[in-house]
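As agreed, record passed on underneath.
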Amino acid sequence: MKAKTFIIAALACAIGLTACKDEETYAEQKEREIKAINSFLGSDTYIISNDGLDTVLHVGVINPISEETFEAQDSTTDVSRNEYVLFTKSGIYMQIVREGVGERLESGNTARVIARYIEYNILSDSIQSRNDIFYWHTNPDIMEISNRYGTYSATFSTDNGGGAMYQTYNSTSVPTGWLKPFPYIRIGRQIEEDDRIAKVRLIVPHSEGTQKASSGVYPCFYEITFQRMRD
């Protein structure tokens, strides 16, 4: 009887040790995320639709630049060289594809902004959500954003049931990474034929992403346009 009890205890211990070995620590998950981002930077990435039939976006090989270089270039990124500025404190990479028309959101002001986007999970190599398709044309994601002395905060509107981000994650929280471009872009509307609204590309680590990304420790790539709503 004692021998049988010992064998059962030994098996339980072995199973427990195997489970602990197989379960990643948070540090290991972060290391995996860093490796995935570095691989993404150096890959000539084409984002393919989840049905595998269409190329949605060509990201290309990314040329990271420092914040010092970014500032020296008047807070712009050279799209012809596929530059992305790395904000070292947050780990966010940003490319300003278009600065946009209109005005920047000044301190003390608020605005309602239409955001159309593609969200690509870098770790799983798949599109996670998007609202740049016809289905969401009449119900885009609307951000209510404010600037308080250079600190930006925003929530997603739930009007008409909310947009793709709200319905995907059941949260009004706007990822912190989405707010990073606002000191550097203008939010207006296309009035003249040549007017082009703001467009950015972002690599957002889990700590600056959605609640799901934060808990799952995975990075996402975003392409987003921002357009001010009519008053």
Q: What stands out?
A: The chain has a mean pLDDT of 91. The chain has one domain: 6-228. Residues 2-22 form the longest helix (21 residues). The helical segments are 2-22, 26-42, 67-72, 164-169, 176-179, 211-216.
